[in-house]
Write a structure and sequence with these properties.
The protein is mainly alpha-helical and 131 residues long. The protein folds into two domains: 1-52, Multidrug-efflux Transporter Regulator, Chain: A, Domain 2; 53-110. Helices cover 72% and strands 3% of the residues. It has five helices and two strands. The chain has a two-stranded antiparallel ribbon. A hairpin with a 5-residue loop joins β1 and β2. The longest helix has 63 residues, at 54-116. Keywords: Coiled coil.
C-alpha cells in the first residue's frame, strides 16, 4: 500500500512541502496516479525519512482531537448564548403582548359593564316613590 503526500507527511512527521521538495529533487521517488495524486512507496519514503514512532502519532492525534473538541465546545457555547439571548428577547416580547392584551380586555370589560347598567332615566312617579 502506498502513501499519498499527506499520509507520507504524517508517517514521517515532516510537512507536505518537505516531502514534495524531496520528490521534486529526486531524493524520494514516487508515481502519480491518473487523478494526479502521488503514490509513494513506504520503503522508498522511509529510506530518506525515518518513520515517526506510533506513540508520537497517537499523541499528535489525541492533541488534535482535544483541540477540535475545545473548538467545538467553544462554538457550542457561543451558539447556546446566542440562543439564550434570542429566547429572552422572545419572552420579553410575549410578556409585553400579554400585558397589552390584558389592558385591552379590561377596557372592553369596563365598556361592556357600562353598557349593561341601566342608565335610562326613571319616570317621575318612580323617582318620587322610590320604585
Amino acid at each position: 500500500m502506498s502513501y499519498t503526500l499527506n499520509e507520507a507527511a504524517k508517517a514521517t512527521g515532516k510537512s507536505k512541502t518537505t516531502i514534495h521538495r524531496a520528490l521534486k529533487s529526486g531524493k524520494v521517488s514516487a508515481t502519480k496516479t491518473d487523478s494526479g495524486v502521488y503514490a509513494i512507496e513506504p520503503a522508498e519514503l522511509h529510506r530518506v525519512f525515518p518513520p515517526v514512532p506510533t506513540e508520537r502519532n497517537a499523541e499528535r492525534s489525541i492533541r488534535n482531537e482535544e483541540e477540535h473538541l475545545r473548538n467545538d465546545l467553544g462554538t457550542l457555547r457561543i451558539q447556546l448564548e446566542s440562543t439564550e439571548k434570542e429566547r429572552e428577547r422572545e419572552r420579553q416580547q410575549l410578556e409585553e403582548t400579554i400585558a397589552d392584551l390584558r389592558e385591552d380586555r379590561d377596557r372592553w370589560r369596563q365598556q361592556a359593564t357600562a353598557l349593561l347598567e341601566d342608565k335610562r332615566p326613571r319616570g317621575f312617579w318612580k323617582k318620587l316613590f322610590g320604585g
